[in-house]
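Incident log, structure service

09:12 report received: a user says their structure output differs between two submissions of the same chain.
09:20 pulled the input from the user's history:
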Amino acid sequence: MPIVGFGIWKVPNEVTADRVYNAIKLGYRHIDGAWDYTNSAEAGKGVRRAIEEGIVKREDMFITSKLWNNYHAREHAFEMAKLENEAWGLGYLDLFLIHFPIALEFIPFDKIRFPCFWSDKEQTKVTPLAKVPIAETWKALEDMVQTKENPGGFVRSIGISNFDSQLIYDLLSYAKIHPSVLQIEHHPYLTQPDLVTMAKENNIAVTGYSTFGPQSFIELNSVSAKAAKPLFEMDVVKSIAEKHGKSPGQVLLRWCTQRNIVVIPKSNSVDRLKQNLECCSFNLSEDEIKQISSLNLNLRFNNPNTLQTPIRIFS
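09:34 re-ran on a clean worker, output below:
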């Protein structure tokens, strides 16, 4: 899995194909998507264009997607995963994650195809929880993995997202296929050192999303994101960037990648896409890494406890 990927969360559907194609032309080989992002078909179109033009081969690309909350029951997990694989149109998914450790009641695909947390199209009612254990969902993902015993599998590896340590320990007690990746919110305002260490101790790679902190959530009208000072404007980040002749964004990305945490930033700017991909071209000192980590406030922006019916998975 390439340590710098291109994330397609919140990339508008009408430009996703071109953005993915152009990212691949720049050198990106890792695309991070999800059913809930609603743009997998468009992203797949961009990848296929790059393949057809000889820029890459399928095996050069690493495609991540995620199982949404309404489809944790075994039969629904398989149905959604197959639809997602068909949407990408690349034959298989390299990595498939459980997006949240939250099971919501099933909503038929022909009723609301991308329900997010809502049970109505107007997005006024939070979908009730469903009684589906993570063990059932994980077993479904295991049965999607292509192996000698399961040649019809369409997923190469599986993992988890937004899980905490206790839940991971529990999963490890029964998993027949080891989770390969844990994807979490990770930035200097939310460093989660024990969770990161626990994952690495158990041979689980860590991917951090929202590396730039509140930046991704301001456009979602997040109150906490609007109240937080942008990480790009923090003196410690700016001074380290100036010292190395890099942008604040590159410094934040390097703070992750130098600690072997995969990053999946997105950008609408070609120049910033290039900068993001080049974030491993310099090294921070141990002291600089500690200075950035000291900004930790345990401030989480992606939290379903802000829903009108709160779901408190991060309590």
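09:41 both user submissions now match this output. Likely a transient worker issue. Closing.
09:42 reviewer note: The chain has a mean pLDDT of 97. Residues 67 and 98 are 5 Å apart (CA to CA).
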